[in-house]
Amino acid sequence: MNYRVLALEKKMGPMDLTVHPLLLWSDSEVVLFDAGLPDQADLIQREMQALAGLGIEDLTAVVISHHDHDHIGSLAELKRRNSGIRVMASQIESDYISGIKPSLRILQAEEHNKGLSGAQLEFGQRFLAYLKTIEPCEVDTVLSAQDGPFISGLPGLRLIYTPGHMPGHVSLYLEDEKVLATGDALALEKGVLCLPNPQYTLDTKMSLESVKKLLVLPIDSIVCYHGGVLDHDIQASLKALTQGDHQ
């Protein structure tokens, strides 16, 4: 299996945000894990071309870790450019991605804003308005509720359920390459592996339990959607998180 880590940059107000979808391909499949922020389809195209000589027209599937805005932001546009893409997500996340249910992040933001005032409330309202602009996209394939292989053309690719940040969050594991793509189950901050931001993690206890699942995997490299690639001291870093050394 071939893979490359994309780097999609976007200026968000005073911040520069970079996210890292994972591109995987074989002779019969070209799969993207997560779909960036809104208006990043052209950047996805350029990154795919530069890193792998592939384009959106070659994609056969997009697997979504969860329904946050920075993971599904360009999903609908990718689907418009290539109607043959199979959008894949867990059962829980599918209803939010497709717009059948209101985004849990929107509901969280609405509740959070009730306790704000002044400049903080103004910022919260702007963020909420931004979340409401995210375009839903129909999910074509609801993933199995069990961990394991799920795409026949990529037999070494395993689905791993890692709920906590969002209730139906999934990660991907490349068995032969010993690469773990975590979505938002983990993050990398200044080269240090950490749990996802608790402010945006709906169940921090479950998030920690998901990390404990990963300890049994032989891992040579972790791809964090926020932070990029960690390729050293992986077992020690995971153990530190599960033992509370991140506090």
Automatic annotation (TrEMBL):
<feature type="domain" description="Metallo-beta-lactamase">
    <location>
        <begin position="18"/>
        <end position="226"/>
    </location>
</feature>
<dbReference type="Pfam" id="PF00753">
    <property type="entry name" value="Lactamase_B"/>
</dbReference>
<dbReference type="InterPro" id="IPR036866">
    <property type="entry name" value="RibonucZ/Hydroxyglut_hydro"/>
</dbReference>
<keyword id="KW-0378">Hydrolase</keyword>
<dbReference type="InterPro" id="IPR001279">
    <property type="entry name" value="Metallo-B-lactamas"/>
</dbReference>
<dbReference type="GO" id="GO:0016787">
    <property type="term" value="F:hydrolase activity"/>
</dbReference>
<protein>
    <submittedName>
        <fullName>MBL fold metallo-hydrolase</fullName>
    </submittedName>
</protein>
<dbReference type="InterPro" id="IPR050855">
    <property type="entry name" value="NDM-1-like"/>
</dbReference>
